[in-house]
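User: Hello! My lab partner asked me to get a predicted holo structure for this protein. The small molecule is flavin mononucleotide, SMILES included with the sequence. Please write out the structure tokens.
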Amino acid sequence: MTAERRPRLEIIVASTRPGRAGRVIADWFIEQAEQHSGFDIHVTDLAELNLPLLDEPEHPALRRYTKQHTRDWSATVDAADAIVFVMPEYNHSFTAPLKNALDFLSQEWRDKPAAFVSYGGISAGTRAVYALRPVVSALGMMPINAQVAVPIRTHITADKQFRSDDALDAAAKAVLDNLARLAPAFTALRAVK
Ligand SMILES: Cc1cc2nc3c(=O)[nH]c(=O)nc-3n(C[C@H](O)[C@H](O)[C@H](O)COP(=O)(O)O)c2cc1C
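Assistant: Hello! Below are the structure tokens for the protein in complex with flavin mononucleotide.
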């Protein structure tokens, strides 16, 4: 009997600026995902990925990529079975680097469940999530309802550390449980041509 492959969870860190809160929030979520043990985890930090603004001549749906950075990014997203966006709210929306990273690819996103770990001021990044939902739907992902929403005022300390609590840990678990349940079904769906 062959052991079942664990779904691969791609965690995308969507803020890139120096001094960002995004990395410590992402590190907490990565720890939650490791403890959950339902996934093989891969992390893409858009600050490290450092994609240029979209520089491919053809529509990404054609997959006729001309740049190595696009081919590498394509391989990373292709390998994912579920996606989590760790994302701040900027001007009531999501970040420009995230939109650029999404636009680079097309089919690679399709038929994959997606979830959001948002953060921000009083809205805890929820307006950014509601701006992003139609974009991930347009790319064929399935955004789930479970969400982590972090108000940074109460969870990021003056020295930029992240403090979780029971409610956030429970929200992270709900996200991971939902994705673990859905990922195998979407893997089967992608096998149907
Ligand atoms: C350009 C910019 C725009 C922002 N706009 C909003 C906003 O519309 N709503 C909000 O709640 N917070 C807003 N903030 C505050 C951010 O949520 C907060 O600074 C957060 O730490 C940003 O994530 P980062 O530190 O990972 O970049 C904004 C911050 C920046 C830098």
